[in-house]
Amino acid sequence: MEQDIQTIFRSQKENSSRLAQMSVKERLERVERIDNYLKDENNLSKLYNALYNDLRKPEVEVIATEVGIVQTQISHLKKNLNKWDRDHRVSTPLPLLGTRSYIRYEPKGVVLILSPWNFPLNLSLVPLVYAIAAGNAVVLKPSEISSHTSAYIKKMIGELFRWDEVAVVEGDVSVATRLLEMPFNHIFFTGSPRVGKIVMGKAAEHLSSVTLELGGKSPAIIDETANIQQIARRLAWAKSVNCGQTCVTPDYVIIHESKKREFIKEFRSAITELYNRSGSGTENSPDYCRIISKYHFMRLNSLYKDALEKGASLLTGGYFEEDDLFISPTLLDGISEEMSIMQEEIFGPLLPVLTYHDRLEVSEIISRHPNPLMLYIASREKKNIRYFMDGNPAGGTVINDYMLGYSNPNLPFGGVNNSGIGKSLGFHCFMEFSNKRSVIHRKWGSLDMIYPPYNSRVLWLVKNLYGWM
């Protein structure tokens, strides 16, 4: 495998200058290969099977959270790449009179994409299409945990691209470690802050630039003015989709004490409506995913038991079935900071509920944790919305809804420090995979009037050029 990785990297490095010279039309043709592949019903059927085997993902979620998002980004690229790829003119200051200045976006070269298991198609292909659109050669390492989808991606890319343009490398952590030893021009990583630090450390050895899409504890604030029935239903879905294994899912609730009882009632009703209308149990719903592996199941079970042992109480849910990797949507009350469930990102369908009396308390709670990837605010009061936004930095914010932060290609997606470095989606993702080269082109004139030998006249000219006179 070591030799294979070196061969792939060397071949892509040699081919990178050819890729950099490709026209926008040629780049888009390569992106469209992926789009057309996913639109083929036979290929789509195989993808359904792969994601069902990995996560028990229903077909609607395959389209809504995987394929549809990839196709939305491709559509956005097709509409905008010509504009993005042009030279971007900038103004010229007086001392540079006679020159033309512009920014040229050029590919970084050979890039590495390390993608996660929770949305294994979406989070592999979205950065991939932007890397291709920017003109780079790409090595993609999907997660070995979602093995069926990773195999699907490898087969797809192998059919669509030469391996000196795009190559998929499968394997475990040891393979990722070997890849990180290579001097890639850019690394795009999606995963946990803990692993993100390792990736950043390895990138630093080669001074490779990085994009880190991480996570953290994204709070969901619900104030006394919120429409509780509406918000509880939206939050119940957000915490349940993909069985809570989503970097932008609300990690804990901070609700005004006057609305807590109503919220619990409406949350329970929403879970029943969404996943248990027949009364046969959420575990029998065809619309509810499963935990990815036994390891992650046991981790979540440990968080749950630790919370109960330290004084938390169960409000709803709490059903764990190890053989089926099933965990029901679960609300927990009586939460304290020493509980493990408040010390790490949950990444599952467990939802701690905290209350506040005065909104000053909200910032105090959030400030105990690193800046989150997303901040959710449920309120009908503009002053409260502004207050919660101004006092609590986050990568993004969604107001009166959930899970939308990754949906608009016109907005940057990414975190702040512990929750991420760099931005994804749209032009922001194109820039992550591009070197922003500054160009100054002398069209006429010269600065030779200020060349040595210096004298009082040269000093007078220089002062005038810089606005001193």
TrEMBL record:
The keyword Signal does not apply. Residues 3-439 form the Aldehyde dehydrogenase domain. Pfam families: Aldedh. It comes from the Archaea. The keyword Translocase does not apply. The active site is at E213. Keywords: NAD, Oxidoreductase. One of its GO terms (molecular function) is aldehyde dehydrogenase (NAD+) activity. SUPFAM superfamilies: ALDH-like (SSF53720). Belongs to the aldehyde dehydrogenase family. PANTHER family: ALDEHYDE DEHYDROGENASE, ALDEHYDE DEHYDROGENASE ALDX-RELATED. This is Aldehyde dehydrogenase family protein. It comes from Methanolobus sediminis.
